[in-house]
Amino acid sequence: MLEKADLKVKCSKEEYENIEEGLLERIGCLQRRLREKGIPVIILFDGWHASLRGRVISSVLAGLDPRGFRVRSAAKKNACTEGLPYLTRFWTELPAQGSIAIYNNSWYYGLFEDKADSAKKSEGAELKVHAEDVNVFEKQLADGGYLLIKIFLHISQERQEKNLEKLEKTYGKDWHKIDGNHVKEKEYELRYEIYDETIEATDKRKAKWHVIPAEDLQVAQREAFGVICREIETALKDERTDENHRLQEDAKKVPDVLSGFDLSLNVSKDEYKEELKEYQKKLQKLQFQLAKKDIAAIIAFEGWDASGKGGAIRRLTSLLDPVGYRVVPIGKPTETELQHHYLWRFWQAMPFPGEITIFDRTWYGRVLVERVESLVKEQEWRRAYREINETEELWRREGIVLIKFWLQIDKEQQMARFRDRENTPSKTWKITEEDWRNRSRWEEYEKAVNEMLFRTSTDVAPWVVVEANDKYHARLKVLKTVADEFERALAKP
Amino acid sequence: MLEKADLKVKCSKEEYENIEEGLLERIGCLQRRLREKGIPVIILFDGWHASLRGRVISSVLAGLDPRGFRVRSAAKKNACTEGLPYLTRFWTELPAQGSIAIYNNSWYYGLFEDKADSAKKSEGAELKVHAEDVNVFEKQLADGGYLLIKIFLHISQERQEKNLEKLEKTYGKDWHKIDGNHVKEKEYELRYEIYDETIEATDKRKAKWHVIPAEDLQVAQREAFGVICREIETALKDERTDENHRLQEDAKKVPDVLSGFDLSLNVSKDEYKEELKEYQKKLQKLQFQLAKKDIAAIIAFEGWDASGKGGAIRRLTSLLDPVGYRVVPIGKPTETELQHHYLWRFWQAMPFPGEITIFDRTWYGRVLVERVESLVKEQEWRRAYREINETEELWRREGIVLIKFWLQIDKEQQMARFRDRENTPSKTWKITEEDWRNRSRWEEYEKAVNEMLFRTSTDVAPWVVVEANDKYHARLKVLKTVADEFERALAKP
Question: Do A367 and A381 touch, CB atoms closer than 8 A?
Fold first, then answer.
């Protein structure tokens, strides 16, 4: 795609100054309309080293209200997400609805630059991210309502050399040290090929690349304004034609997964006490081993109201080092969370190497409560099955241990526990109107649970259904499963 | 204070198990009442290495709803605040109203452990934090409505050795590597002295230390529950007797600071254009030099509505590298921000070494809009003068460049600009009902501005009043002042 950019176009300083005022007003006005409509925007500026991205970005910023944008750079480390999967950083940095995120060097930095660096080495180092991961990420964003504008600033080898000389004259010999972007541009041809290939591989319908000639700074500024304004105008007009045509196919018969479990399984109090202590001690040691090996773990708990999630989590953690694990309870999203992608808040809680994050309710809320309560459209929760599988697969590939529990009880057992909560003064706070309302929709939830278990039990991230009518059995099964999975992870070379 | 703890008290496992259920219910109930009252709580667990803090914390956690607490450790690095002033981390980690933060090793880690380490070195290394800073911090928290519970677990040298042996038996020889807490406990006496002194120096009325004997694990657990429950119960009863008696004195006559400025100062368009370009280029280079020297800068803008803050910021930043600075606009606090200390959101935006944070409106909102609109009580905004001075002094001591601008216009000039905004279609969005309302309170604001300038122009963080009736003059003064301050900072050895 690079060869299509016409590097010979010119625009004089005077010409540009004549149109500048108009461009600034136009983009400022568009920004206010984006805010009204609550559309989040991400603008990527990638391109050749010394293609003056900073200058082009500055000219765009001059028209924007700073209350609505944030500039970032993937060439700079984000210490907060160091050690986490490559895309975590960009997930956590996603702009809220109506806001604009601008990258001077985006997630493509890990493709463009790392690929070039690795190509130079004889062995070819391992990449932190692949074009396919980026495509999945960008599709999730586009489907989630994000407007993505990808700009590549293209310059010739001669222009690059001239720009480099000029930068050196302005800042001194050591100027390039500042952004970690060392001058290593002798290999123009090698890079040309890599950039071109990568752009080709990641140019998608809702995530198109715009290659802008930056041979002449004013041309680049004018073109950048043009691309950004046109893309925003299109997004503002877009009535979002949703893809209903595939719903039919996806809605095919779901087998009854839940009924295959024996809810009468139980354990005596004595056996429970003994095994509980044994496994708690075992987990204490395993946590230490995981920490030493820098293995991160995510333990996800889902289940009916009053199925014993909290109690199981308490037993699971009672001997763990409290600094090494974290229980993240998932309730109604906050105002801020609602202004982001539904997966955003889970990416915020990723465990660091050697740490454990326990989710008390999870991202599966999308296909459970949000589905049953019609909080989202059918195509949104249907799409979530794929998105969740993609996300979990990514986590697993990064070496994160992932354990997903569904705590299964029957309707009678739930009633007994609700009554017990109502009748025990110290437990009444645990039972609310909402619990009763959810219960009245038991059959709808059952259908949703069945479909969830069916569609998201993948090879790399299978569900563990826990028969939970008997609390002792349930807790022991949880502890044993976690211990087994930890041991498996530790056994890997 | 350490010698007061009776290390001989015993409590058998059976005794403890008998009372455990009651303790868990009591603390769970208190947590729910804290949430209702919206009181934020911070519980610090410090003490000897191998004093089994983790075990004591776990026993407390067992009674708490995980929706309301978070455990952290200062012995573990928080990568997000690496390179920022020592207390930044704890500021940004503050719990929201109704939530509990628990530290296994708190900000005292930087006092207890670093002091001990440094005492061992012949020269005595420089400390990252001093007892006096901690006292200021804790007073700000207590005044801000935070309940602070500080627990020190005390053990004898014999017990420490026994515990260390036991830990080694459980986890293996390398166990101590896990939390960065290397075994260096040969110096029991040296540490005893340091701990004791530090506790003495930081034991304040609203930030009392509780030294708990941890010779016997069950005693420590029982005592920790006792201290925490009693402190919470007191806080729940507390009707907050505010200190009105000193208001009289503080309210003494404030000189008319504002009237001393010549608002007729102006610059011709030609001169402006020329100098603007010159200073923008100069700032471009200075930003690069600051980045190279890892110097951080905070530039704070305050001023009347329509005094030209936005325009000045735009001229200031137009040639800066957009990745190296960030404009943080301060408006009405969000829901989440309201649940924290009023200074919390500013600590979140601290510039990293080599970076610049520009605040468009600032923490001075406390003594301006919040005072004039009676959003806080008089003692709250009065206290803010001291708190702000303390905070700015801390930043300056950490080597951060701090520049504070007040953009001054007169009432007629504001009216002219409001009218212009109303009459220019592309500017109408800039003028709102609120601007007119603020204007109707001009005299009250003037009084507040005067007092602010008087009380918070300190030696290390003086205000720069910018005569802003003429925009050209104002912008040039801003750019020149920033350039001068940057040069001064760079000139320091």
Answer: yes
